[in-house]
Amino acid sequence: MSHPQPPRTPCSSCPWRIDQDAGDIPHFSLALAERLKATCPDERGMGPDVGASMFACHQSGIGHEVHCAGWLASVGHRHPSVRLAVAQSRMDISRLRPAAHWPELHANYGEVLEKLRRTAPDDPEARACAAPGRDTGA
Fold it and tell me: With contact defined as beta carbons under 8 Å apart, do 7 and 100 qualify?
């Protein structure tokens, strides 16, 4: 993903918003949501790894992806590439925290993924990806 500036606020169907679920996301894929775990700190608060992909806004086009505003404000400060972009003045540090008028956001991707799993339509491929012991990183 290049480094264009992300949207100023989370989009209306952002999965990081507490008030949205899988049914609000156009063309939702639970299998893709499972793979996005690699863009976020794990349940111990560790990671992601150097070179990990970043969480793109689902409304950005393929080849023209922008960072998800909700992801940046919730956990973006933990991503090595985001930290480097801020240090090199390619991204404004204010993008790493929600503004006062923003909707309430989940604190971590575990919360987001739990909600998406609970509200997603039945998806056998996603269940296979989420099976214990399976690597779901992108």
Answer: no
